[in-house]
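Moderator note: this is an archived Q&A kept for reference. The question asked for a predicted structure of one protein chain; the sequence and the answer are reproduced below.
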Amino acid sequence: MTKIFNLADAQNQLASLVDRAAAGEEIVISKDGQPHVKLVAVPAAKKGPREPSGLLKIKWISPDFDDPLPPELLKQFGYDPDP
């Protein structure tokens, strides 16, 4: 249920209104008789490791991904594997 408080009352009891909003109650603060702002709880942060999605999600990686490059490819980059 939504509770409406005028700005002056909200200023005097802000700490208790924040506690009530954190507990799940919806608090509306009015100014000049018109609803102005709403206090609601912030959703809890997700815990645990983040899962990549979209372009960052790796679908497959070759088992030889970090193996050394073949000598013929290294020569194309100007590196002589056999000095």
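Archived answer notes: The chain has a mean pLDDT of 87.
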